[in-house]
Amino acid sequence: MQSWLRPQLSYGSVSSYDSTASYTDSYSSDEDEGSPRDRQQKNSKGGSDFCVKSIKLADFGRREIEIAEQEMPGLMLLRKRNCTDKPLEGAKIVACTHVTAQAAVLIETLAALGAQIRWSACNIYSTQNEVAAAMAEAGFPIFAWKGESEEDFWWCIEKCITAPGYQPNMVLDDGGDATHLMYKKFNGTFNTLKGIVEESVTGVHRLYQLSKQSKLTVPAMNVNDSVTKTKFDNLYCCRESILDSLKRTTDVMFGGKQVLVCGYGEVGKGCCFALKGLGAIVYVTEIDPICALQACMDGFRVVKIEEVVKHIDILITATGNKHVVTREHLDRLKNGCIVCNMGHSNTEIDVASIRTSDLTWEKVRTQVDHIIWPDGKRIVLLAEGRLVNLSCSSVPSFVVSITATTQAIALIELYKAPPGRYKHDVYLLPKKMDEYVAMLHLPTFDAHLTEPSDDQAKYLGVNKTGPFKPNYYRY
């Protein structure tokens, strides 16, 4: 086993973390109005290779990062074990993920493992400005602020790719945008990469398309479908953050409300379990008969959207598909219905179809809009159809620790792999590494694994130290 994978259990106590709203939401200053691109900022050491809302927020961001570190034990343990060996020495990473306190812990972990990093945001609304400032103050080239325009978004990614004297050799992506831009506009750089790590449904789909067309010229790791991502981030994170998002934005009471959740994958399951637990009446739409059968066995009624659209109080998309909710559906919603997306990007709800002259948009609060029809009917749209939990609340740091540790290990695996181990294709994280990520987080719960005897291991046909399940096992 490689040195950075050796189990060296060193358990420390971890205090709990109660998520709070980003300081970004309450901060304002006249001198910081306008685009950050129009201002020259420097950190305390005179560095200016960054673009954030305001470097003055750095102290607040550092405190948020310190809170997140307490709830990210696996990532901190990975950092502690490997900071001497520096398995990412020489890695030059271009990253495009959510810029939050949890991402900052990952950034500093990758740096401690030897990597150089340039970072941008994969979502124009999810950046915590104070965290971006703290990263800039610490000397990291970070280009992100909350409320970027579409042009700003692509400018920030390009600034990470094209820095003078910086030749990227790894990409860490969430949504595939950095990969897409590099492939389309900087193909020479793309072709020299050692690897790509992608953690979203959409980004992985793009990679498989490139591979199918024989256009993928570098190995890529599909982190999204690793067990430690799908079964934890998608399920447990969404189970908690959907309630947080809806409460913060609308103050809604869930008991007795009729809710439609589109999609019963891991994200949909998490949403349904949480809402049902607070007394909501939950319906599910599905295209997959297996997921539909699971929903039925879990006690949810599987319907077509047209059957319930007139009666529901809350509509949540969680499919990873496009235009699941169309203008026709939105026209039929009842007055006051709350509409939001827990899937990916802003494709699930056809928001463009309601940006028309016959409808009025009325801002209620941050990330909350009333869409008003000519007859006076209004619906409540959250985050303009983008990911509501990452735009309107925070996500549990502990779950992000699992995902971030998976990302870090995938980067190390691709970067350290000998020539020929990974070809120009898309790979799942090896099962042994999935188990290692889980093991790093067990000490938090004072959990003690049972070791099989030699005879038991032989009977099962497994190694005593794992992996313990075949690749086709679904958990």
UniProtKB/TrEMBL annotation:
The keyword NAD applies. GO terms for molecular function: adenosylhomocysteinase activity. Residues 1-47 are annotated as: Disordered. It comes from the Eukaryota. Pathway: Amino-acid biosynthesis; L-homocysteine biosynthesis; L-homocysteine from S-adenosyl-L-homocysteine: step 1/1. Residues 10-27 have a biased composition (Low complexity). Its cofactor is NAD(+). Binds 1 NAD(+) per subunit. InterPro entries: Adenosylhomocyst_ase-like_sf, Adenosylhomocysteinase-like, Ado_hCys_hydrolase_NAD-bd, NAD(P)-bd_dom_sf, S-Ado-L-homoCys_hydrolase_CS. This is Adenosylhomocysteinase. It comes from Actinia tenebrosa. The lineage of its organism: Eukaryota, Metazoa, Cnidaria, Anthozoa, Hexacorallia.
